[in-house]
Amino acid sequence: MSGSLFYWEESKMKHTCPVCGFKGLAEPPYDHEGNHSHEICPCCGFQFGFDDYEMQHEDGSYLEPSESIIAYRKNWLAEGCVIFSPECFPKHLQKANRGLRHHLIEQLKQINVHLPS
After folding, report:
1. Distance CA 65, CA 55 (A)
2. How many degrees, rounded to 5, is the angle at CA 15 between CA 1 and CA 88?
3. Cβ partners under 8 Å of residue 5, min gap 6
4. Does residue 97 carry a pLDDT above 90?
5. Residue ranges per domain, the chain?
6. CA-to-CA distance for 11 and 45, rounded, in angstroms?
7. Based on the number of CB atoms within 10 Å of its own CB, is 51 exposed (0-12), middle (13-18) or buried (19 or more)?
8. pLDDT in the model for residue 6
9. Alpha carbon 109 to chain centroid distance?
10. 8 Å CB contact between 81 and 19
11. Residues 7-41: pLDDT tens digits?
C-alpha cells in the first residue's frame, strides 16, 4: 500500500495530542478516569503513560503529568519540532522530518498554544 497510514486511516485518527496539537491519535490520550492510552504521538513522540510519568524536577522529584506535557512540548519546540514518525505524518506538512512552521503554528492553536508567526 502506498501513502502514509495517516491518509488511509484518517477517519480513525481523530484525537488530538495535548503536547503538540496533532489531530491524528487513534485513541484519546486519557480516558474519563485519567487512565492513559500508551499511544505514541506520531508527530511529537510523546507516549501517554510513559513520558508523562518519567520527567523529573532538578531535585529529583517527578513532575505531574500536566507539567510533563508542558516540559515535553518546550523541549520538542526547542529541538526544532522533529517529526517522530514521518511516515505517519502528512508529507506535504513536513520538510526534512520537521514540521513546517506555518502548519505547526496552526496545529498548536488547537491546544491553545500560540507561537509567534
Report:
1. 9
2. 30
3. 87, 88
4. no
5. 5-109
6. 21
7. buried
8. 42
9. 13
10. no
11. 435 555 689 999 999 998 999 999 999 899 999 99
Question: What pLDDT is recorded for position 12?
Answer: 58
Q: What is the mean pLDDT of residues 40-57?
A: 91
- Asked whether the predicted pLDDT for residue 1 surpasses 60, the reply is no
Give residue for cell 522529584: 61
Instruction: Locate 96 and state its grid cell.
Output: 526534512
3-state SS of the chain? CCCCHHHHCHHHCCEECCCCCCEEECCCCECCCCCECCCECCCCCCECCCHHHHCECCCCCECCHHHHHHHHHHHHHHCCCECCCHHHCCHHHEECCEECHHHHHHHHHCCCCCCCC
pTM higher than the cut 0.90 = no
